[in-house]
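Contributing new complexes? Match this layout with manganese (II) ion.
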Amino acid sequence: MQLSFAAPQPVNAGAWVVGAVEGPALLPAAQKADTACGGAISRALKVSRFKGKPGQMLEVLAPEGAKASRIVVLGLGKPGELDGNAVENAAAGAVGAMSKAGETSVTLEIDAPKGGKLKAGPLAAHVAMGARLKSYTFNHYRTKDLDDHEFKLKSVVVATSDAAGARKAWPALEAVADGMFLARDLVNEPPNILSPVEFANRAKQLSKLGVKVEVLGEAEMKKLGMGALLGVGQGSERDSQLVVMRWNGARKKSDAPVAFVGKGVCFDSGGLSLKTGAGMIGMKGDMGGGAAVIGAMQALARRKARVNAVGVIGLVENMPSGTAQRPDDVVKSMSGQTIEVLNTDAEGRLVLADALTYTQRNFKPKFVIDLATLTGAIMVALGSEHAGLFSNDDKLSKRLHEAGRAVGEPVWRLPLGPGYDKMIRSKIADMKNITGSTYAGSIAAAQFLQRFVDKGQAWAHLDIAGMAWQDGEQKALVPSWGVGFGVRLLDRLVAEHYED
Ligand code: BES
Ligand code: MN
Ligand code: ZN
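Output block (do not edit by hand):
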């Protein structure tokens, strides 16, 4: 898909998408279009239920007088609520509909409404972002009927009174879109292809962007005493890996880095505590936290963010076999603490434990945020509307909450506390990896992780089990199973607060 910004000019072919706010009230481009087709839009408005609600569309096909193949009036909702995220969602809806309708070219001419939050240039950049995110496909494994699955638009022109401003705002958004696409690709990739080693190989590609990438194998992790992570991978034929990525973009070279840690379980069968057949489907996506971390690192490097950042991903495959870890095993983590493994399906926390210790010891970060598809229980609590946020730091929590709101990746904080910590006391080791209860499962998992957070270390844990992929209704900006959740959130957090 070719994407470009241009000054408004007559649309001679393809679809012409123009905006209206709630009322409905046609914005200037829509009025211009109405004139071009002899008032066909005004007439259509009278006989339709179009109100200009967010994402609503009114379509006039083959309009007489105009050269466009169709004119689409796109609802933008209330001007006061029209932020970047709302613009992207509306634009994505229109672009998706045009692709489905068989158009190959679209001109989007969405004016900034009076009383809106965005000026023309940035608004146009968000229109482009909506189009770009909607254009994603994952068709590597189709050999037929490609036509039904391809994204059809060859050209998208974003017409705006401030093309220069739009072009200036675009590169940072494009970098984020590319990072999200990388994360989506990894989440969508089937597990026979995406082993821990293959994931690590893909991470190595980031060195082209100036990211320093180091990969630790099992022997090195054993030397470091990473018994918790290695125990999870020991039932698999495939080697476990630890990916360590560093982006040093801060002006102050010695500035303490921000750190992101990802759960990279390339397939979670449950291990000997085997999942059911149905429960295993989709567990190729159990590396969604790791995908967010690599995607965010790529985005930061692409847009040359002025920050020092590290990304650490613990990569394993959780499989049952004669060498697999048993329920009742006790493992020793890199921190020195011992863990009684009572359920091999509570593996993510074991992987993260060692990745967290490694990150804190080696980098002394400003904060560490881990992302993980950690518990089914977080979906019971929050569904697919919010990721769960757990943290020992109110400031970091607030910043994450605001960043999430702004980019359409919302997070919701849940409590931690000594009462919950008691739930993971073990009869024979320092802790156990599950509780005896069916309640507060997500909090207990977070409580487990907190045992590996050093005193004074700002930390947040994002449980993204409900967000990393979508089985139900598709979100407007996400046309694939893999979402790429977390990339934008981390990028925004850094952009708002941690660049020098
Ligand atoms: N990867 C799963 C969590 C998960 C479940 C993510 C469903 C997305 C959808 C995790 O490793 C897991 O199996 N958690 C168990 C923990 C339990 C054994 C304490 C769970 O949530 O059932
Ligand atoms: Mn599991
Ligand atoms: Zn898992």
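Reviewers usually confirm one structural detail per submission. For this one: The radius of gyration is 24 Å.
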